[in-house]
């Protein structure tokens, strides 16, 4: 009886029925064309496609937009089975035996074997032995269907899973809205003057739909708590959850700053409340913080690029250099004092979005001679400095010297840019270009 009931619940939530089709996509749905194009390009490729990214960044909506696209191409509705493992009414499908029964029922009794079939497993990590089950379906020649999975942890695609599939998988990394998507969603002009609004609002689709400030703050808090509870605590079972939450609060205010594990430990220990009579050594805290930062990177909450040393010609094994948040709405900042850091965070995320390898760059003169980003992609590479606003050269001489001269003194044969909100700036050096933030976005996408 359980399986029969589960079949009904699953079919109802796969949008097969006319009365459920309207719930496939949310209100104010915006088509994310670039991700759909990537999915379409993989349509005839024999791989498992994983859609990965931070919680609430839009992975599930993209998967459902793709389902709608296939419907529009006349793929039968019942040839697409969509299972969202977070839905409580179908929680029993997370059990391996129930899942196998549902898949066999769909493939043998529901799907038209003469037509293309697609299985979408949303938040697949909630499925018992998910990696073994996905690999089994992929390898089973009687299961003639394409597989798309979504998840919120970069370590999901483990070495064991990769070995089981023989490397036959590909990952699409989903980010919150880009500036172009934000402008389209908000109905505003794509122009440099609107970048500040984007930096203050962020790119989380659900957050942008809320206009009441108190409700917006509550939603952001819910996203953070949900990320910690489901993606970190339940997966890793950290030994000191209080330290983890204190570290998250610290990262929210310390993005785009020079950091070290020691400085983070000292700051976090000042703010964490320990039970009476207990103590935590700095060494123990440092070890835990290093581990917890790794967890936060795994779940796409933050990023920490490595540092390239010109002197050693290698990646420095530093414990932490800078951290960047996955979205600006997660930051906890004073709006009038942190704009430059927000812009730097934006540039970093845009570089990742466009598949650049991103590193910090340490020059050869002294250890403080650093450039914000050294980026590479195919035959394209550049050194990039980011500044909120350069203004007049005579009035801001020291600022111009810092941003342009550091690049000029580096004798590396790559493009060199200073990126800021200024629209028209004449660079004082022939080997360096100034780009407005929107000009940089064009360069990154080329």
Characterization of the model:
With 446 residues, the chain is an alpha/beta fold. The protein folds into two domains: 2-173, P-loop containing nucleotide triphosphate hydrolases (Rossmann fold, 3-Layer(aba) Sandwich); 179-445, no CATH class. Helices cover 43% and strands 15% of the residues. The protein is built from 17 helices and 14 strands. The strands form three sheets. The protein has a seven-stranded mixed β-sheet, sandwiched between helices.
In short:
The chain is α/β, with parallel strands linked by helices. The chain has 17 helices and 14 strands. Helix 13 packs across helix 14.
- Write down the domain tally: 2
Q: Strand order across the biggest sheet?
A: 8-7-10-11-12-13-14
Q: Given the helix and strand composition, which structural class is it?
A: alpha/beta
Approximate strand percentage: 15-25%
Q: Which of globular, elongated, flat, extended, rod-shaped describes the shape?
A: globular
- What's the story with the biggest beta sheet? 7 strands, mixed
What is the number of helical segments per DSSP (H or I, 4+ residues)?
17
Mean pLDDT score: 90
Number of beta strands: 14
Helical percent range?
A: 40-55%
Tell me the distance between the termini.
56 Å
Rg from alpha-carbon coordinates = 24 Å
In the predicted model, the low-confidence regions spanning at least 5 consecutive residues are none
């Amino acid at each position: 009886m359980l399986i029969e009931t589960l079949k009904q619940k699953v079919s109802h939530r796969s949008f097969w029925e006319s009365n459920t089709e309207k719930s496939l996509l949310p209100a104010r749905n915006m088509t994310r064309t670039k991700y759909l194009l990537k999915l379409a390009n993989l349509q005839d490729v024999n791989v498992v496609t994983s859609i990965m990214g931070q919680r609430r960044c839009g992975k599930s909506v993209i998967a459902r937009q793709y389902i709608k696209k296939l419907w529009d191409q006349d793929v039968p509705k019942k040839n697409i089975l969509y299972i969202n493992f977070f839905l409580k009414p179908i929680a029993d499908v997370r059990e391996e035996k129930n899942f196998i029964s549902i898949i066999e029922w769909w493939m043998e009794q529901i799907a038209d074997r003469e037509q293309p079939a697609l299985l979408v497993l949303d938040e697949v990590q909630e499925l018992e032995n998910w990696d073994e089950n996905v690999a089994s379906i992929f390898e089973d020649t009687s299961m003639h269907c394409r597989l798309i999975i979504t998840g919120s942890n970069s370590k999901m695609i483990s070495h064991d899973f990769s070995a089981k599939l023989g490397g036959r998988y590909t990952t699409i990394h989903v980010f919150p809205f880009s500036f172009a998507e934000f402008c389209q969603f908000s109905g505003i002009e794509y122009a440099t003057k609107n970048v500040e609004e984007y930096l203050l609002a962020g790119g989380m689709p659900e957050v942008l739909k809320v206009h009441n400030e108190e409700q917006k703050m509550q939603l952001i808090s819910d996203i953070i708590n949900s990320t910690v509870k489901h993606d970190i605590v339940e997966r890793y079972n950290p030994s000191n959850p209080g330290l983890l939450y204190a570290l998250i609060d610290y990262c929210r205010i310390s993005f785009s700053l020079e950091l070290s594990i020691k400085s983070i430990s000292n700051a976090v220990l000042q703010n964490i409340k320990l039970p009476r009579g207990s103590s935590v050594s700095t060494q123990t805290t440092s070890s835990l913080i290093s581990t917890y930062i790794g967890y936060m990177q795994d779940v796409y909450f933050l990023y920490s690029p490595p540092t390239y040393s010109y002197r050693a010609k290698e990646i420095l094994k530093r414990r932490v250099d800078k951290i960047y948040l996955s979205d600006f709405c997660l930051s906890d900042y004073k709006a009038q004092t942190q704009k430059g850091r927000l812009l730097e965070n934006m540039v970093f995320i845009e570089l990742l979005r466009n598949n650049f390898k991103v590193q910090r760059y340490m020059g050869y003169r002294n250890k403080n001679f650093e450039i914000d980003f050294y980026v590479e992609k195919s035959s394209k590479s550049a050194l990039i400095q980011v500044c909120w606003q350069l203004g007049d050269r005579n009035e801001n001489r020291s600022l111009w010297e810092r941003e342009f001269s550091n690049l000029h003194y580096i004798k590396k044969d790559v493009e060199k840019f200073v990126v800021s909100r200024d629209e028209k700036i004449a660079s004082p050096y022939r080997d360096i270009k100034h780009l407005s933030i929107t000009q940089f976005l064009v360069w990154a996408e080329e």
